[in-house]
Amino acid sequence: MAKPVPLLKEQTNKETEILVTHDTQCPFCSVQCKMQLLETKSKHRTSYQMIGKDNPTSKGRLCVKGMHAYQHTLHKDRLSHPLLKVNGEFVPITWEEAYETMTSQVKSIQREDGNDAMAVYGSASITNEEAYVLGKFARVGLRTKHIDYNGRLCMSAAATAASASFGVDRGFTNGLDEIPFSECIVLVGTNLAECQPTLMPYFEEARKHGALIIVVDPRETTTAKLADIHLKLKPGTDAALANGLLKTIIEEGFTDEVFLKERAEGFDDVKAYLASISLATIVNQTGIKEDDLIRAARTFGQARSGMIFTARGIEQQTDGVMAVRNFLNLLIATGKLGKPFSGYGAITGQSNGQGAREHGQKADQLPGYRAIENSEHRSFIADVWGIEATDLPGKGVSAFELFEKMDRKEITGMFLVCSNPVVSNPKADFVKKAIGKLKFFVAVDLFLSETAQLADLVLPTTSFLEDEGTMTNVEGRVTLREASVEPYGESKHDWQIIQDLARALGKEKYFSYTCAEDIFNELRKASKGGIADYYGITYKRLKNGNGILWPCPTLDHPGTPRLFDQTFHRANKKASMVVVPNEAFVPKEAPSPDFPLYLTTGRELAHYLTGVQTRSSPSLLARSFESFMEIHPETAGAYGIQDQSFVQLTSPQGSLVVRARYSDKTRQDTVFVPFHWGGQQNINRLVSANLDPDCRMPGFKVSVVKAEPLKQTR
To answer: Is the C-alpha dihedral spanning 461, 466, 471, 473 positive or negative?
Structure first.
């Protein structure tokens, strides 16, 4: 753990103040802004200030969330000791009692119901070390196949698409520093200005250099204001829109024939399919004017360089994988990959959304992006862990499917780390009911979240200011998050809790770490030779603060800022194009007389994920203290809804009450609700459990609802 730096300064009132600086990284979005907490102590008061620290990614910038990130760590409701539920109430217990309780319950469940009856639910907000050791704990400590994590709800569509098209999934194929020099940038379903604000200057600089920016989004977001062309499509029609763009590019001769011949496969099939469909059909399906669609296609096709960025707007759909693949088809067809200022970026949502999916939390994955069903990969990891490959469990199921198994009582115990699935998952009331059927449920968290309240045992963990470890940011840049604040109360680091539990279960020989760096050194070995190769990265190399972009296979390797400059990572070294039908493989909900409006969900500037941390920040909560429904004024008028009035929003899954907010920035057939609130304002209660067939991503972005004024009762 890095030591805090104390400084003395003399105040005008002659009172001596001690100033302590704590180096850290923001715990919120995937930019992972470097920053310092200034802690000023005097005889009468202690005050805090968060300031940005220069780094290659955010250049010292902070957004409003980062500026107030310390506040939740000081909140009075933060958990300080283990809690056991007794007769429906939580009572404090010792760590020894907590470990004894969990050990007894786990052994009982696995003896009665089998090893796979225990499930592990992880997080994309924990460090690489903790993600790695959690995956190892599930497979070695518990010997269960049932592990997945909340990143399944965030990045799985983009990850699956990039792996299929290119053979590798890293957030950005190019470094951020190439963005300002790209001639054409396409932003699909991403609201950077509110979700990753400190990245916006890269795109603003590109505009100054003459870049043309195309935004694809049903709403006119703050990001869309930057656009030269805003394609305001119907929710859920991204794949069809990409077909329209690609059809125009092919027919007008903007493809890169040399690139397609030498470095790609599948183009002829795509071309034949697009020749069989009409642009008029796509225009009707997407709601985009034909002139706008053609102008966007020509703009991207004619540009000498271009980049496409996707985020949850396109990915959180039941055809998210194929929709992303179709936009990757655009890059491949025009040869805009592996070259300066040309490439793809999946804009990761959570703080460690990239790293947390690389090293073993996903149901089908082992460290280094190795596949759990690949015998060679299994043998390699088994050797690193000192076990037999035959002792490694097989592939489990996705995040939401874990709750389906709980509902069927196939899973009867769960160990959850730093996640809030009763708010973040679709069909949230069902998830809550399924958890209620468990024989034993343990939650590790900073707060008694909506999910932790349902637990039998709650274990207090440390915050970002207290927990050292590596994170992998939106670029694929591995950074070291230093931590010098003492743990709050009796809280422990996630990795310490996991290790203690493994030892209590008799697996101490496999879990003998003394610090986070010990775990990272084992992770390096486990990732060696894999797609996400961290072997050449060390804490010593990371302490300069600049980070290293993987793959980094040797200790003298500088890292890899740009992928695919020579070959792709598929067996034949070529990128893969694929036919993507206009119609989704899994039918999407469509408006009807009973449910006439589309519902789409997303983020807003002051909050993060399910709001457990940001709603515990007074400054952030004051900016946005309740949920809302954004609705076009003409649509509101048609349904008798007044601005700022309460509305009952109903879907086939259920209903909730939320305040209406007029906005002419959204389509008239669509309402928008953020997802940062729980309880009766949890919008995911209205989202169905339909999943993408390839990545098992829920369709958060396309639901159908009716909106009506709340009826007053006396």
So the answer is: positive
